[in-house]
Design a protein that fits this description.
4 strands, globular, 2 domains, 134 residues, 4-stranded antiparallel sheet, single chain
């Protein structure tokens, strides 16, 4: 296990611990991360409106592991997580907290998303998407 510290900059981020929890896979990347140091008990967003409250203090992030054709969809993708961040920043930019820093981050995330989508489209066109082929 290894800790990631690049997010630590303010009191909220300083208490969040990100741990890499597995060994790198065949492509060299890890698939299991854990975020701790928070407690959702007092977070209004965890009320699902039906009496259920998702109260927890650990968030596992499990990425797709293995080719989809062989392993099925068994984790989240970079594209899915980036889409969430894009949505949040777009909401901030359309609200009272719009600023140049958020816009720079939003533009960068959109560029990252487009790069990943372009790569996937290119792999699909070559018939190698969902495989370990380059």
């Amino acid at each position: 296990m290894r800790k990631i510290e690049g997010h630590k900059v303010n009191p909220a981020n300083d208490v969040l611990d990100i741990t890499v929890r597995d060994r790198p896979g065949s492509g060299g990347a890890h698939h299991h991360y854990s975020i701790t140091g928070f407690d959702t008990t007092g977070n209004e967003a965890n009320d699902f409106g039906d009496g259920y409250r998702a109260c927890f203090s650990r968030l596992p992030v499990i990425f797709q592991n293995g080719p989809i054709a062989e392993a099925g969809v068994n984790g989240v993708t970079h594209e899915a997580l980036i889409a969430i961040l894009i949505d949040r920043l777009e909401c901030f930019q359309n609200g009272p907290f719009a600023n140049a820093y958020n816009q720079t981050a939003l533009d960068s995330l959109r560029a990252a998303q487009e790069a990943l989508l372009t790569r996937t489209r290119e792999r699909m066109a070559r018939g190698v998407e969902g495989t370990h082929q380059k």
